[in-house]
Amino acid sequence: MVKEIMNRVEVDCQLSTPPRVCDYFDMICGSGFGGILAIMCGILKMTGQQLVHEFINLCKVVFAESLDITQRTAVLEQEMKAAIRKYSTEGEERKMICEDDPCKTFVCAAAFHNTGHPRLFRNYHSRANPSLDCMLWEAGCATVSMPDLFNPIFIGDTNIGETFVGGDLRWNNPTDELTREAADVFTGRRITCIISIGSGHTGYMSLSKGLADLFSRIALDCERVADDIERRFGNIPEVFWRLNVEQGLQSLAVDPSNLDVLASHTHSYLQSARTTRSINILLQDLIGRPERLPVDRISGMAPALLQVLRRKLCPPPSQHFTGRSSELKKLEEYFSLNRESRSCRVGVLYGIGGGGKSQMGLEFVRRSHGRFSDIFFVDATDKFTLENGLKTIALGVSDEPTVEDALHLLQTSREEWLLFLDNADDPSLDLRPYITWPHGNILITTRNREIRMHAPDCHVWVDKLELDDAVELLLRGVSVHTSPDTYQTASEIVQKLGCLALAVNQARGFLVQDICTLSEYLPIYMQNRKRLLEDRLIQSTDDYEHTVYTTWTISFNKLSSSAVQLLELLCFMHHESIPSRIFEDAWKTGRQVNEDAVPASLVTFLSSFEAIDSTWDILQFRMLIKEILSFSLIEFNASSHTFSLHPLVQQWAQSRYRHSQEVLRSTQTLLSLAVPRGETKEDYVMTLLLLPHVRASMQTGIDVHFTLLYPLGLTYDRAAFGLEHPVTLSSMNNLAITYGKLGQNREGLELQEQVLALRTQIHGEEHPDTLTSMGNLAVAYSKLGQHKHALKIKERVLELSTEILGKEHPSTVISMSNLARTYSSLGQYNDALELEVQVLALRTEILGNEHPDTLMAIGNLARTYSDLGCYRDALKLEEQVLALRTEILGKEHPDTLMSMKYLASTYSHLGQYGDALSLRQQVLVLRAQILGEKHLDTLKSMNDLASTYSNLGQYKDALQFEEQVLVLRMQILGNEHPDTLTSMNDIAVTYLHLGRHRDALNLNEQVLAVQKRSLGEDHPATLASTNNLASTYLNLGQYVDALKLQEQALASSTHVLGEEHPSTLEIMHNLAGTHYELGQRRDAMKLQERVIALRVQSLGKEHPHTLLTMNNLAITYSCLGQHGDAVKLREQVLAVRAEVLGNEHPDTVMSMINLAAAYLDLGQHKDALKLKQEVLKLSTRIRGEEHPDTLRIMNDLAVTYSNLGQHREALKLKERGLALRTQILGEEHPDTLISMNNLAVTYSECGQHEDALKLHGEVLRLETLILGEEHPHTLASMNNLAGAYLTLGQDVDALKLYEQTFNMRRRVLGPEHPDTIESSKWFEGLRNRVACGKGVRKQGKRDKLKRLMKFF
Questions:
Q1: Rounded to an integer, what distance in angstroms lies between the CA atom of residue 1297 and that of residue 272?
Q2: How many Cβ atoms sit within 10 Å of the Cβ of residue 538?
Q3: What is the percent of the chain with per-residue pLDDT over 70, rounded to a whole number?
Q4: pLDDT of 551 over the 60 cut
Q5: Residue 107: what pLDDT?
Q6: Cβ atoms of 1054 and 1019 closer than 8 Å
Q7: Which of 72, 239, 399, 598 has the least C-beta neighbours within 10 A?
Q8: CB neighbours of 572 closer than 8 A, spacing ≥ 6?
Q9: What average pLDDT does this structure show over 1318-1341?
Q10: Alpha-carbon dihedral angle through residues 1232, 1233, 1234, 1236, given to the nearest 10 degrees
Q11: pLDDT of 263-300, one tens digit each?
Q12: Is the pLDDT of residue 96 over 50?
């Protein structure tokens, strides 16, 4: 653990040499072997690495099995002297006391004849109870001289001396002694932190059965002391740290052979999230050394300035408090700054009622216990409670204290007091007279946003909890088994509660009573939401008088009638990003329609904002917003002019109007009036912003017979203007576009067809509006996957536009660009490229190089180059576009962000994942800031970032983002929207990377079922999902099921898209792979050759997809024995990839590996080995040792070593690979199981047959559990285990397994599969020999086993 801390110090401080422990601690102590470590760290000045090395060597020598107690004592002395000679300039004559040592160090021992008090051996002089002037090695031996382990040690001369035994007998945890020594030595100073490192959580480390009880007492006593110290510093956070391995060491014997086990459990402990978080915090202290607490307080003394009678203590925070780390850190940093300053520091926590402001303030006080001399807690609900609380501060100064007495006392004090004003919500209460001081610290909690003005440097918005923190709060004290399913269920609950602290805590209190299980809570909550959030639990452990709903009701009752009506209208929209422009636009439209169609209350409300000059009175509207903001019932983003409500505030508000049809009708009418009637880009953007709110208003579950058949104002337009009026047709067109955005593509298509028919009838085919409708209809066809229909329409639009408007007209150029995109959708990339080049030339000539439309044309051309695999050409264009857009539009413009997105994609294609990651992180941050965290474009950026994490092999990080996107898309778009289904597919792919095949299968089946129902079986998206499901079947070993699906998908795709379409070729490519897995290698070869021919024709010979199929064909050639053809093809692929993608691209690296494999097939082992060694170095440098691809290369190189007979080299690599895969992916991941299997084979090759048998058995157990008994990998492992039995001469066990493998392979893979044939040979051969009683002769057996034990 010390080594880990020092390693992190070295990295964080960017040190050129490993740091010494003594340079970062002022005092180090220890007892027993902890005392030896203290000497090594504090006096011998070792680094973390040296400490581990020397201590392990000492333990191995001292605890050798052959030593008795006397020999062990002598060896201990020798090893101590050797270490001192090595690390001390004075050699073994080094004395314990040396004032030149920069780090104060002591160890504990006990006098043999009186163990009542510890005897401290110090390296410094002490004014009380001075240490013996002994040798350093003597002090080391004294502290570890435990009975039955070592003989007692006599220190001194024959006249004056004492006998000592180990300090572990009584002071195995000497933290108490440390605090007393520090208070005595460092008088007047302040400490940063105390770190206590234990040797294993409760339980014992036994040397022999006779010492079990003794060690048990030692371990338990050690924890008792740690608990006592922790309680002492309980209210002073980040001062005392206890690091102690929690699991795995309880019954571990003291034996050098167990050091690896001890190391494993220690590493596991250090890698836990909680330990990592603790070490990260204490590292900041070690490096920054903040002065937290006067040293005289650490041993129990805590003087205070003011009399105890005058002190009003804060109530403790909830025992279930969790989270808020960033907010608390901001408070702690602010109140720690400028300690010498005489100005008063004021901090404000403001936010929604029930958000946890008071609890956060109380937690800050608890953590800051040692920072302030006095803490005064005052209820500031109103003027009476505020002044009454202030009077209590002056108790003891006056028999009848006044507010003035208290204010005078605080004003004249020079101590660092804290005044905590809680619940200062009343807008009429002026706080200035109570918080204007020349000195001191004030913390205020409030719902009134205006209070922020008193704390310009430290005002913290307290909103919802982070998801993980909310889940942790919900599960505290709840009797549930920790598992991913538990976390998922808890996540769903807290998200329904909006992660609001008070609501989650109420839910926790309900669950603790065991009224229902965790999984039952959510349905109960949905049925009884209002009741659950209004009821206060009788046995609540928190001293809070309000429930969730009552906190808001109190604020609501103080609002004006206009503010109440505004809140009513907002509560039935989506709770985030409500444009304030809705009200002005609705007012403008409402003036043009018949007032009878608009609810009277809405007319009155909107009319109240009409100014004298008949314009919208923006100031009056903003004042109304300000009134609601003052109670923190809503949030308002001044930069985007949007409202937001907390989801629970929205639910509470809705519950007040649950039976009010009038309120809901007013909201729906408001939205209908607000919808733009035009077709400009600005109108389109506004329509998109309205979508979630229209959807929310139509899905409230309230039974209202509202006439919004076309919810975006179409009803009103029809009534006001008639069906054929341009305004009505624009509304119909907007609604059709809206349907498309909602994923309701069939409805959108039907409406676009109506609009086109009407416009053609009214204006004729050649009218601009008709041409626009034709274009929109083509888009609707494309959304349904009917690209050929779209193509015909777009070609007609371009023809008409060119004829009527001319080739250079902007509309004609747009039509040309749209047609190019359709060509791309049909896989006709060369046709698309030809058009894009024309578009760019025209726009450059007409508009200039820097016009936004020209930049868009350059971007489109770049994407076409990407489609053609010309990534470097695309890169040049995208970098050009990004530079110009950044210069002209600014970094935060949506078009600039789109350019960054596309450039990041090209970086990914080129294997520059680090550059892609950086760009995508920037895009996500900017979109979240500008558009909001839940905007659809922000979600796309999150998805892009997840994709980059996958490319980097960081699948768990990818999954975290993908799951978040899925949840939000479900909330905003619904469960069946195409984007939602895309998210489900993305997660399924990540599940496959993580080895969670069954979870992937479940998602794939869900997606496919929805798409068949909503899009039809022949839709391209449905066909793609069919292909995805087949891939998952392949991973599950269900080859026959995969084959059937792929054949169906291929037939449909060929019919719908054509044989040459990229999607069709992808299905054909995958089908070839399935034939290969089924052993149908010649069928695979024919398909692969066909795919290559078609891809060369449509994409070109250098396209990545073409090269991928060529690579797979080479593999098939190898299996068919055509090794020369395989080498030739792989050399060709490598040359092209190196030229097109570069030598360091992942695909190029993989080609090098494939070529090395081909060399092996040809018997060119040295060439193969050299190439694989180069590749491993390259991948490790580019992607890191822990990347999944690097681990695969490492495994592949190990296999090559085995083939060359270099089994020891193979063993080292395979053990390293297994350790890394277990650490990164987990023991049950398929790749980890592959490593285990390969290591078992190498054990056998090295003659470690028992180890091989054990590991083969473990692999078979895990694969049977995870993949199923009939999975091909499981059957291969069964075959391998049979071979291991055979090697050990256990013929009967081997025969039984061979027979089982043969029968199952015949049933699962078919009788003609190569693996089935191989199993048949081994089974029949061994059965005949066993029947003849001969067994299998060992001669030549190993060579046969090599063929038998397949590498996956």
A1: 40
A2: 7
A3: 82
A4: no
A5: 94
A6: no
A7: 399
A8: 654, 663, 664, 667, 668, 696, 697, 700
A9: 69
A10: 90
A11: 778 887 888 777 887 888 888 888 877 776 667 667 64
A12: yes
Q: Which residue has the tokens 């004290």?
A: 477
Report the pLDDT averaged over residues 363-386. Answer: 79
Q: How far, in Å, CA of 1122 to CA of 1128, rounded?
A: 10
Tokens coding 511: 């669950």
Residue 711 tokens read as 């919810």
Alpha-carbon distances of 1204 from 549, 1161, 1168, 1198, 1201, rounded to whole Å: 74, 12, 10, 10, 5
- The sign of the dihedral angle between the CA atoms of 1052, 1057, 1060, 1062 is negative
Residue found by looking up tokens 């690390």 in the block: 87
pLDDT digits (tens, 9 = 90+) for 890-923: 888 888 989 999 999 988 887 777 788 889 988 9
Give whole-number Cα distances, 760 to 683, 757, 800, in Å: 23, 5, 13
Q: How do residues 820-874 score in pLDDT, each as one tens digit?
A: 888 887 778 788 889 999 999 998 988 888 888 898 999 999 988 888 778 888 8
- What are the DSSP calls for 1207-1256, one per residue? HHHHHHHHHHHHHHHHHHH-TTSHHHHHHHHHHHHHHHHTT-HHHHHHHH
Q: Identify residue 1187 by its one-letter amino acid code.
A: H
Which ranges in 657-744 belong to alpha helices (H)?
Answer: 661-674, 681-698, 714-721, 726-741
Sign, CA dihedral 693-694-696-702, equals: positive
CA-only gyration radius of the chain, Å = 37
Residue type, 487: Y
Distance CA 174, CA 176 (A): 5
Closest alpha carbon to 665 in 677, 656, 675, 673: 673
Residue 1102 has what pLDDT? 81
- Retrieve residue 800's tokens: 């008409």
Structural contact between residues 873 and 865, judged by C-beta atoms closer than 8 angstroms: yes
Work out the end-to-end distance of the chain between its first and last CA atoms, rounded to an integer number of angstroms.
38
Q: Quick one: tokens of 603?
A: 């007319």
Q: Which amino acid is at 637?
A: N
DSSP 165: E
Q: How many CA atoms lie within 13 A of 1071 on its CB side?
A: 24
Task: Give strand pairing partners of 31.
Answer: 108
Amino acid in the structure at residue 924: L
Per-residue model confidence as pLDDT tens digits over 1248-1288: 999 989 999 998 988 888 777 888 888 888 999 998 888 88
Query: What beta strand segments (E) does 380-494 contain?
Result: 418-422, 441-446, 459-462
DSSP H or E run through 122: strand 114-122
Burial status of residue 601 (CB atoms within 10 A of its CB: 0-12, 13-18, 19 or more): middle
Dist. CA 264–CA 278, nearest whole Å: 20
- Say how far apart CA 718 and CA 714 lie, in whole Å: 6
Please provide the DSSP assignment of 810-856 as one string. HHHHHHHHHHHHHHHHTT-HHHHHHHHHHHHHHHHHHH-TTSHHHHH
- Best CA proximity match to 501, nearest among 540, 547, 537, 535: 547
Per the CB < 8 A criterion, the answer to whether 1190 and 1184 are in contact is yes
Contact present, 1018 and 1055 (Cβ < 8 Å): yes
Beta partners for residue 135, in sequence order: 95
- Give the single-character DSSP code of 611: -
Per residue in 960-1009, pLDDT (tens digit) is 889 889 988 887 777 888 888 889 999 999 888 877 888 888 899 999 99
Tokens of 596: 């009878």
What does the DSSP assignment read for 222-262? HHHHHHHHHHHTTTSTTSEEEE---SS-TT-BS-GGGHHHH
C-alpha to C-alpha distance for 79 and 291, rounded to whole angstroms = 39
Q: Is 677 helix (H, G, I), strand (E, B) or coil?
A: coil
What is the distance, to the nearest Å, from the Cα of residue 908 to the centroid of all Cα atoms in its chain? 20
Asked whether the predicted pLDDT for residue 653 surpasses 90, the reply is no
Within 10 Å of residue 610's Cβ, how many Cβ atoms? 14
